[in-house]
From TrEMBL:
Origin organism lineage: Bacteria, Pseudomonadati, Pseudomonadota, Gammaproteobacteria, Methylococcales
CDD domains: PolY_Pol_V_umuC
One Pfam family cited in the UniProt record for this chain: IMS_HHH
Protein known as: Nucleotidyltransferase/DNA polymerase involved in DNA repair
GO biological process per UniProt: DNA repair; error-prone translesion synthesis; SOS response
Length: 425
């Protein structure tokens, strides 16, 4: 059977989520902001057409925002996560195998399902997702994941595709590859693209014509596999079960500059609690903890300070108390008086499954105590899931003045009874 994979990608996902409950904003310029409402992280097509780039600070485009009446929203991750789950649930109806690639993308295995008319099946997916969730999507199809990704890029860029494109046909594939820059290929970053350009490889077609062995010798096996995928030879399998994270990072920029150790410690404790929750969610343990703090690097009028430190644990753990205590000891070594800190964070690495036997220290009493901490941590997680606003109080005290600001956040329409949409007739 001829393999056929599809990549379904939501259009301007964060903006689309806001528009579902604000239909008056359809066709108007809308942007979603990062933590602290500092930078633009999602743009409607109308905002893109104004030349506003991804990640640009809001203050740099304030004139454009006012002149074109751009509607701004703070990031509402609760809403976005729930809308993503609804989209993925809808997509599961169209395939026996699916890989959730990101919050707004999923690969679908359509092999043997849509051989008669793949484009019509893709249009059916597109219409069903829009009807069920209100989120517009584009569908790219091909015999490999890389070709499906390339087809999705073209489906978004050229409206004449109707938002659905199939690259199973070699002639259509070649026609597209000849006009698309090599930097648009999935997995080809800006540095790799620059090196390819130096070798005279400027388009996707140029890359697809290269011998995989030569590319592997000059770059690496990943780029060589990309060449094979561009020629319709599958090298990447669908990952129906998401792999465990090998690194967990939790950090935030503060709504105001922090100068006291106590405030930094409270913020760091909350970040550690969130990281530990993610660790236990995948039933893993951590063997190395790193902490970093920094001032605002974009303010030359203030003294600058940036430091990081890490430590390898004597025995791997998933206990919040151990992670918070270790992070605070590192913070004491890093903290210096006289600076206005903008950001801090924690990084968990050397992560492994909790089921793997762990080498313990005969004289480390904490390692044996961890065996009894599992039930306590499970109870803490259950409490935090039931009362999510209680996490910070339990972990970091009552002063939340450092919390990132979100002055333009929308309501949690789908997850909070108090925020349900009211309809007046």
């Amino acid at each position: 059977m001829r393999p056929l994979l599809a990549l379904v990608d939501c259009n301007n996902f964060y903006v689309s989520c806001e528009r579902v409950f604000r239909p008056d904003l359809v066709g108007k310029p809308v942007a979603v902001l990062s933590n602290n409402d500092g930078c633009i992280v999602a743009r409607s097509q109308e905002v893109k057409d104004l030349g506003i780039k991804m990640g640009v600070p809001v203050f740099q485009v304030q004139n454009l925002i006012q002149r074109h009446k751009i509607q701004l929203f703070s990031s509402n991750y609760t809403l976005y996560a729930d809308m993503s789950a609804r989209v993925m649930s809808t997509l599961e109806e169209f395939t026996p195998s699916m890989e959730v690639y990101s919050i707004d993308e999923a690969f679908l295995d359509l092999t043997g399902i849509s051989d008669h008319d793949p484009i019509a099946y893709g249009q059916r997916i597109k219409k069903n997702v829009l009807r069920s969730t209100g989120i517009p999507v584009c569908v790219g199809m091909g015999p490999t994941k890389t070709l499906a990704k390339l087809a999705n890029f073209a489906a978004k860029k050229w409206k004449q595709t109707g938002g659905v494109l199939d690259l199973s046909d070699p002639l259509r594939r070649e026609k597209l590859m000849r006009i698309v820059p090599v930097g648009e290929v999935w997995g080809i970053g800006s540095r790799t693209a620059a090196r390819l350009n130096q070798l005279g490889i400027h388009t996707v077609w140029d890359l697809a014509r290269q011998p995989p062995d030569r590319i592997r010798d000059q770059f690496n096996v990943v780029v060589a596999r990309t060449v094979m995928e561009l020629n319709g030879i599958p090298c990447l399998e669908l990952e129906e079960i998401a792999p465990d994270k090998q690194q967990i990072v939790c950090s935030r920029s503060f709504s105001r500059r922090l100068t006291e150790y106590r405030e930094l410690s409270e913020a760091l404790a909350e970040f550690c609690s969130r990281a530990a929750e993610k660790l236990r969610h995948q039933n893993s343990v951590v063997g190395h903890i790193s902490v970093f703090i920094r001032t605002n690097p974009f303010n030359p009028n203030e003294p600058q300070y940036q430091r990081a430190a890490g430590i390898t644990l004597p025995s791997a753990t998933q206990d919040t108390r151990v992670i918070v205590g270790t992070a605070n000891r590192l913070l004491k070594e890093l903290f210096r008086e006289g600076y206005r800190y903008q950001k801090c964070g924690v990084q968990l690495s050397r992560i492994q499954p909790a089921s793997i036997p762990n080498q313990t220290d005969l004289f480390d009493s904490a390692a044996f105590a961890q065996a009894e901490s599992g039930k306590l941590m499970q109870a803490v997680d259950r409490i935090n899931r039931r009362f999510p606003k209680g996490i910070a109080v339990a972990a970091a005290g009552f002063d939340k003045a450092w919390k990132p600001k979100a002055e333009r956040i929308s309501r949690r329409y789908t997850t909070d009874w108090r925020d349900l949409v009211g309809v007046k007739c």
